Structure formats: structure tokens, C-alpha cells
Amino acid sequence: MIVGIGVDLVDIPRFERTIERTPQLLPRLFSEAEQQLKPHSQAARYAAKEALIKALGGSDGVHWTEIEIASEASGRPVFSLCGSTAAVVAERGITALHLSLSHDAGLATAYVIAEAVPAGESEESA
């Protein structure tokens, strides 16, 4: 059952200018691995983190650096959560997070679907 949906759009040139002006934002927003990425990939990951917060219905207990967007061997983006952010997701009964990223024409976008198993059902029967 879908319990939350979030979408976010980031203007990549504006994002780049912000990071150039305020480089101390990088360690506040991104994991060490994410800080090494190109700006268009960072912008997409920023959008993903914003979209996740929207899918969760708010940012209480969520911390930017506890949300990392990694890639499976296939290239598919996935969330890697830790700390209180992982706890918030678990407390809300969320059993799956689906993420799609894209960047083109100076824009980066992310779409997140948060899924939970309805009360009384197991994951196998859902």
C-alpha cells in the first residue's frame, strides 16, 4: 500500500551557484561519497532527499547526511538510510522506498514512493 509520494525539481545551474557561494553546504547535505559526484548528480540526489521528506510527510527526525543515494550494479538508484532517519522510516511502517532520478536541460528531478504493508498483512501476502 502506498503511504507517501514525493517529487522534487532542482534547477542545476542555480544549485551549482549556491554550492560555489556556500561550499560548507556540501558536508551538511551529502555523504562523503556523494560529495565526490558531479554537480548534476548532486542536484538529483538533493531532489531525492527533498522528495523523500515529502513522501514521509515532514522532516521530523530526518537528517540529510543520514540519507545517501547509492546505485545498484544495474545503475538503479536506491536509498541507504541510517540513524534516526532509518528509525523514522521503520516507525512509520514503511517497508519499501522506490526512487527514480533524472537530469536533463538544466533540471534534476526525483520521484519517491513510500510503501507499507497494511496492518494485519505480512509482506509475503501483500
| Total helical segments | 5
- Structural class, by secondary structure, is alpha+beta
Helix content: 25-40%
Q: Could you tell me how far the N terminus lies from the C terminus, measured between alpha carbons in angstroms? A: 8 Å
Report the average pLDDT across residues: 94
Overall, the morphology is globular
H/E series: EHHHHEEHEE
Q: For the CA atoms, what is the radius of gyration? A: 15 Å
List the uncertain runs. Answer: none
Number of strands: 5
**Major beta sheet, strand line-up:** 1-5-4
Give the DSSP E fraction (strand runs of 2 or more residues): 25-35%
Profile the largest sheet: 3 strands, antiparallel
Q: Which properties best describe this structure?
A:
single chain; 126 residues; alpha+beta; 3-stranded antiparallel sheet; two-stranded antiparallel ribbon; 5 helices; 37% helix; 33% strand; globular
